[in-house]
Amino acid sequence: MGPIHGKHSSLTTHNLLHLCSMELYIKNMVCNRCIMVVKQVFEKEGLHPLHVKLGEVELDKAPDSNLLGNIRTNLEALGFEVLDDQKSKTIEQIRTTIIKLIHAGELDDNHKFSVLLSEALNKDYSYLSKLFSEVEGVTIEKYVILQRIERVKELLAYGELSLSEITFQLGYSSVAHLSAQFKKVTGFTPSEFRKLKDHNRKPLDNV
What Å distances lie between residue 12 and 4, 7, 21, 29, 66, CA to CA? Predict the structure, then answer.
């Protein structure tokens, strides 16, 4: 009993909490606002998550079935979903990891996102790629392109950065490459899209 007691006595409070904690994977969390909204759902039920990040909530203990049912219902009403099976969890991890890498400017034309994704999820990329294609009906490579273009659209709509600055921030090799990819996906050039957004933008006092 001595060695066992000694081993357990060396655990810190943080480690003990981690051993008892529960991770929930949440579908459709794509931004910082989503993190705030999901956190509020748990707090309204009297739960205070240890961590809330894109696609994931860590609790210090598992909620009972009734409480978890309430959380599921409230999240679904807001467009989110608690994932149960491991494949769905992995798919959501792939999505949220790609979005985080794009927003952090860590995906670019010169880096192998396959390596970054594999390291982030600690899984072989060939497995991740096959699973994603089977479940989502689109390759990870295509999904990355679509998400990068969505981020370009956001930055164009904000109107705070030039196209050259957006190109640099999102890791495109050139403005020409960004423009060609943007036109292929959206049907507009970046400048046409920006003008369209400017024309549709309402004054703040009319919003």
Answer: 15, 11, 14, 32, 31
pLDDT at 1: 41
Q: Mind listing the pLDDT tens digit for each residue in 32-71?
A: 889 999 999 999 988 888 889 888 899 888 888 888 889 9
CA dist., res. 166 & res. 73, Å (int): 39
Asked if 172 and 182 touch (Cβ cutoff 8 Å), the reply is no
CA 82, CA 103: separation in Å to the nearest integer?
A: 24
Strand ordering across the sheet containing 22-27: 51-53, 56-59, 22-27, 81-83
pTM across the whole model: 0.67
| Residue keyed to tokens 């009734």 | 66
- Tally Cβ neighbours within 10 Å of residue 55: 27
Q: Cα(148)–Cα(98) distance, rounded to whole angstroms?
A: 9
Of 133, 172, 116, 132, the closest CA to residue 149 belongs to 172
Question: Could you tell me the domains of the chain?
Answer: 17-84 (3.30.70.100), 88-200 (1.10.10.60)
**CB of 190 closer than 8 Å to CB of 156:** yes
Terminal-residue alpha carbon distance, the chain: 69
Cβ neighbours of 49 (radius 10 Å): 19
Asked if residue 77 has pLDDT above 60, the reply is yes
pLDDT digits (tens, 9 = 90+) for 173-187: 899 999 999 999 999
Distance CA 172, CA 41 (A): 38
